[in-house]
Amino acid sequence: MKIKDLCVDERPREKMLEKGASALSNAELMAILLRTGTEGKNVLEVAQTVLIVSEGSLTKASRLSIDELCRIEGIGPGKAVTLGAALELGRRLCAEVPDNTRPTIRSAEDVCRELSPFMRGLQHEECWMLYLSRNNKVISKERLSIGGQSETIVEIKSVVRRAIDLRASSVIISHNHPSGDPHPGNSDIRLTRNLKKALDTFDISLLDHVIIADGRYYSFSDSGDPSL
Asked: CB-based burial of residue 11 (10 Å sphere; 0-12 exposed, 13-18 middle, 19+ buried)?
């Protein structure tokens, strides 16, 4: 069943044109992306199934892989890609700085504010870098690498080279733990020590290593970790 086959009051597109996107439910917004349902379910019901599978959470919906979405009746690869792209755009929108001013990093909490939107809902590890000026303004915010569920590989030479190219006075490294436990493992400690040693050679400071996990974080700096 297509959206046009629904009653006028149930048509998400018409409702959005009349009242704006904010008037639509999550299911209605998804229905616009999905466009059509199946013989047994209309498009709104298919969208509602996606939300049921993700327990009503858009964050959990964003964690669904293309294969997992395709297991839902009425969703094929094309629709799965469309939903995945929309959810990724939402993640990136949340991460955007609202104006053209460069943010200042004064604490691990500031690091989380800048990077958590990029890591929210990920089932794999990602490593990000903040390159800072002398007054701790962010010169550049960059994803350094993508790893598996328990580890990501960092090329220390690349970090040092990039910091030199940007004329950064200091850097902060951050990555996520999909497990939900922000405490560092042995590999995290080794990485911090090795990165600090390499940056010290060029008089560039490693201010912190912040591990982010489901709204919590571990800061090497705040914890007085000897690796820094």
From this structure: buried
